[in-house]
Amino acid sequence: MKKFILKIGLYFICIFIGLELLVRVFHLHKDRPVRYLDEYNVEKWIPNQTGIWVTGNRRQNVGEYKINNFGYNSVYDEFQPKKNKKEIALVGDSFIQGFHQNYQNSIGQKLETKLNKNYKVLEFGYAGWDLADQLHMIKAYEHLFDDIEHVVIYMQYTTDLKRDTYTISDRFSLDTPLNRFLKEIKTVVYLRDLGLMDPITKSIEKIKTVINGDRSVKEVENVNQEKEDRLKLENFKQLVKQYGYDKHKNVLLLDYSLCSTQFLDYLEQNQFKTINFNKSFEVSKTPPTLIYDQHWNNHGRNLITNLLEEYIQNH
Amino acid sequence: MLFNSIDFFIFLPIVYILFWLFGKDKPKTQNIILLLASYVFYGWWDYRFLSLIIFSTFVDYFVGKAIYKSSDKKVKKGWLWVSIIFNLGLLGFFKYYDFFVDSFVDAFLIAGFQIESIWTLNIILPVGISFYTFQTLSYSLDIYKEDLKPTNDLISFGTYVSFFPQLVAGPIERASHLLPQITKVKHFNYKQSVEGLKLMLWGLFKKVAIADSLALIVDDIFANHSTYPSTTLLMGAIFFGFQIYCDFSGYSDIAIGTSKLFGVELMSNFKFPYLSRSIAEFWRRWHISLSTWFRDYLYIPLGGSRGTRSKAIRNVFIIFLVSGLWHGANWTFVVWGLFHALLFLPSFYFNTNRKHLDNVNLFSSVKTFFIDGGQILIMFILVMLGWVFFRSETLADSFSYLQSMLFDFTHWNYIHPRGYRMWDYYVLIIGFIIFEYIIRKDERNPLNFNNRFVRLACYLLLIFLIFMFYDDAMDRSFIYFQF
C-alpha cells in the first residue's frame, strides 16, 4: 500500500512537470501582465511588459501585446502629442485594450492607416474599466488630453454605469503573494482559464462559508429595469458633472441596442456626440465577435474602424 | 455524483482511505463502508430515490430466501413472480408509464378517436433504475435456477445491489459473479490497484476528451439537421458513434477501474466493438453485460435457437426489440432494436453468427487487410445508420435525417458551435482508432506497455489531451444515465 501511494505521488510530480513543459512549449497559457496604481491613482499595467494573450482552448486565438511607458497596450512607446500631428485618443475597457489581437493590428493602428498621415491614435484601454475609471483617467491626465483633438470613449451601457464616482478597484486584491506565485506555474494559469479550477475554488468557498457559519442566503437584488435605467442615467450625470466632460472633443462609442431610450434621449437632448456601432454589426454577414469570446474579431474591429474614420472625417 | 466531477475526485480518496484503514481484513467493516459510500454516491444526485434502492434490496433479499427455502416448485415460482413483478413494475412505472399512456392515446388518435391524456404523470426517471433492477432480478432468477444460494448477510447483499462504481450505468453484474467477491474479505493488491488507476485514466480520457468534446458538435448537428448539408449529417452520425461509444465504455472503464481499487473485479462491458467484422461480433463486443443478461434470462428461457426456425427467429426479434426498449421509452429505440435484429438475421439464418470469435489482425496478410478491413468498414457504416435512430428525438426526425444524409448530396464546411478548429477532432478520432487497434487484445489493460517511460509518456499525453479538449460549456453527464 505504501509503495502504491508513494508511486502515485511520484507519478503525479512527473506528470505535473511534463504538463508544465508542454503548456510552456505550446504556449497554451495567457501571459498576464502586472498592474499598478500611478501617482494619480490611475490603474495601469507596469510599463514595458510584453506577452501573448491566448483565448479559447488549443490556441484558437492568439494576440501579442506590448505595454508602453505610459502603462497601456500600444505600438507607441510614449503618449506625447506632437504639434505637427493631430491626435485621437481611444479610451475603453478590454475591447480597446485589445489583447485579443496583435498590438500592431489594433483599432488604433487600423484607424491610422485609414486616415491620412497627419493623425496619430493613442490607445488607453484597460480591462474591466467602467466610465468612472475612464473619466477619472482623462481628468488625471488633463494636460495630455488638452492637446488631443478627438477622444473616443467606448462605453458598455449594461456594465459601465454602475457607480457615480471613482474608487480604486478591488482588482488589486487579486495580487496576493499566493496568486503571484501561482501565476508563475503556467499549468495552473492554463487550467484556471479553461474553467477547470472553478469547481475547486467554488468548493473551497463553500467550505469557508460553512466553517465561518455564514449560511445566510444572499437575496438577489430585484431591481426592476426602469429603476436600474434611472440609476444609470443619474450615475452618468454625476460622473460627467464630477470629472468634467468635453462635449466638443469627446464622443461616446455605444451599442444603442443595449441602451435605454431614456439614456439615448438624454444624450441627444444634451448634445453628447455618439457613434452607434450596433447597426454595422447587425447587417454584417460575417460574425463581428470571436465565437469563443465576446470580444471583437478582426472583422468587428474593421467595422468599428470604418465608423470611427467616418466620424473623424465629418468632424 | 459523476465520475468526471470534482466531487468524485474528493469522494473516492476519502472512501479509499477509510476502506483500507478501517476495513483491513474485516469484510463486514469493508462492506459497511462500501454500502454507506454507495448510498452517499447515489444520494448526491437525489436522496429521495435512495428509498427505491433500499426497498428493492429488502424485497429481493427476502424473496431470494423464500425461493430457496421452499421445496414446492409452484411456491418457488410464485416467489419468483413476486420478484419479477416488483422489479419490472418499478421499471415499468418510472420508465415506461408515460410512454405507454402517450402511445395508447396516439393509437386512438390514428384510429380517429381523440382522447385526452389525463393519465400522464411526468414522472422523474431515477438514475440507474434500469441497471439495478436487472441486477436484483438476476439474483432471484439465479436462486430459482439453483445456480446460486441466497446470502444471509443483508449488508453484503445491499452492497451488491448498490455497489457505487457500477450502480448507475453498469456493468450489470450477476449475483453469482459479484456477490461472492463482496462477501469475502478483500485484500489490497498492488497490481490490481495500478490496473484500476490506468483504466480510470483511459476511461476519463474517452469521456472528457472524446465523448464530451464531440457532444457539442453532435448536439448541434442533430438539433439543426434540417439546415445542414449531407456531408455534415454524415459527420454528425459518425461523431455520435464515437461519442456514445466513448461515453459509455469510458464510464464502464472508470467503473471497472474504481472497483479494482477496492479489490473487486467487474465484468468487461466493451471489447472494441468498432473493430467487429459482423453484427454478431459487434453484439459480442458492445454492452456485453446487457446482451449476455438478455441471452441468459430471456433468449435461452424462450427457447433460444432450439426448436423450429421460425421460433428461433421470433426469439431473436424479441431480444433485440426488448433491448431497444430497455434503452428508453421512445419508438426510436424500438426501431433501433428492430434495425439490429434485421442486420443480425442473415448471419443467424445462415449459421455464420459464431464466426469471428478471435481478435482482428489486419496486417497478417494483404488479403486479410482488405477483407477484414472492408467488413469492419461496412459494419461501422451499418451501425452508424442505426445510431441515427438512437440519437434522434423522434422517428420523423431520424427518417428526415437519413433522407438528407443519404439522398440529398450537398456540401459546405461545418463551423464548430464554439468556433473551434474541426481538424483537431479529426486528428483526435483517427489517433483514437489507431490506439484502439494497437491495444485491441486486452480491454482491461489499455496502457500496458513494458517500458516505464513509454507508460509515463502515455499517461502524460492522455492527461494533456483531456485538458486540451476540455470545454466548460459541455454537458458532462453520461448518456447512459438516462436509460
Q: How does this model look, in words?
A:
- The complex is a heterodimer of chains A (315) and B (483).
- Chain A has 315 residues and is α/β, with parallel strands linked by helices.
- Chain A folds into two domains: 35-165 and 248-314, SGNH hydrolase (Rossmann fold), CATH 3.40.50; 170-209, no CATH class.
- In chain A, 42% of the residues lie in helices and 15% in strands.
- Chain A has helices spanning 2-25, 94-97, 107-114, 131-140, 142-145, 177-184, 186-194, 198-212, 225-243, 261-269, 278-283, 298-314, and strands at 35-37, 43-45, 50-55, 61-66, 86-92, 119-125, 150-154, 250-254, 273-276.
- In chain A, the strands form three sheets. A five-stranded parallel sheet of chain A has the order 6-5-7-8-9. In chain A, strands 1-2 form a two-stranded antiparallel sheet. In chain A, strands 3-4 form a two-stranded antiparallel ribbon.
- In chain A, helix 10 (261-269) links the parallel strand 8 (250-254) and strand 9 (273-276).
- With 483 residues, chain B is mainly α.
- Chain B folds into two domains: 6-188, no CATH class; 192-277 and 356-482, no CATH class.
- Chain B has 17 helices and no strands.
- The longest helix of chain B is centred in the first third of the chain and has 38 residues, at 73-110.
- Chains A and B meet through helix 1, helix 7 and helix 8 of A and helix 1, helix 8 and helix 17 of B.
